[in-house]
Amino acid sequence: MERRAFLKARFATGNADDAHDIVQDAMLQLVRSYASRGEPEWGPLFHTILQSRISDWRRRSKVRNRLRVWFGGRDGDDEADPLQNIADDGSRDPPAQLKDKQAMEVLEVAIRKLPPRQQQAFLLRVWDGLDVAQTARAMKCSEGSVKTHYSRAVHALREQLEDYR
């Protein structure tokens, strides 16, 4: 679950460091507030907390970006994750790896282009395997809204990824 949570946060933020912070904060909040709850409840509770943290990050980013306009400057380093440079000896041939990596990059860009609510609905339903009711609880919206956001996300992704069918 941690890997999928990280990927969702990275899709939302576009930054691995911010994504790690969001996931760590969500996990700590889950442990602090809900350790006494039953294990079956932890998944949906974690997704709710994670989605709240991502929304909080988006709001803070908007404020920071407005302030940057007035005060100038940029922060953040664009260095790649050093773990990405470690070779995987048990992997397939390099051309197949390259093709898979390129396809995943295109998918990541397409998911990042989705509006936030569509992105949330898609990732919760597809990657985390939550049903409509669990997704609605995690997103704090109605089941009908989840269905609408998910449907729009799927249609948008199909359109953007038409060349990869």
Describe the protein's topology.
Layout: H1 2-13, H2 16-34, H3 39-71, H4 94-113, H5 116-127, H6 132-139, H7 143-160
Short account of what is shown:
The chain is an all-alpha fold and 165 residues long. It has helices at 2-13, 16-34, 39-71, 94-113, 116-127, 132-139, 143-160.
Total count of domains: 2
Q: What amount of the residues lies in strands?
A: under 5%
The separation of the N and C termini measures 28 Å
Q: How many beta-strand runs?
A: 0
Helical fraction: over 70%
* Major beta-sheet overview: none
Weakly predicted, low-confidence segments = 74-78
Top keywords for this entry?
165 residues, 2 domains, mainly alpha, Arc Repressor Mutant, subunit A
Question: How does this model look, in words?
Answer:
The chain is globular, with a radius of gyration of 18 Å. The chain has helices spanning 2-13, 16-34, 39-71, 94-113, 116-127, 132-139, 143-160. The chain is mainly alpha-helical and 165 residues long. The longest helix has 33 residues, at 39-71. The chain folds into 2 domains: 1-75, no CATH class; 94-165, Orthogonal Bundle (Arc Repressor Mutant, subunit A), CATH 1.10.10.
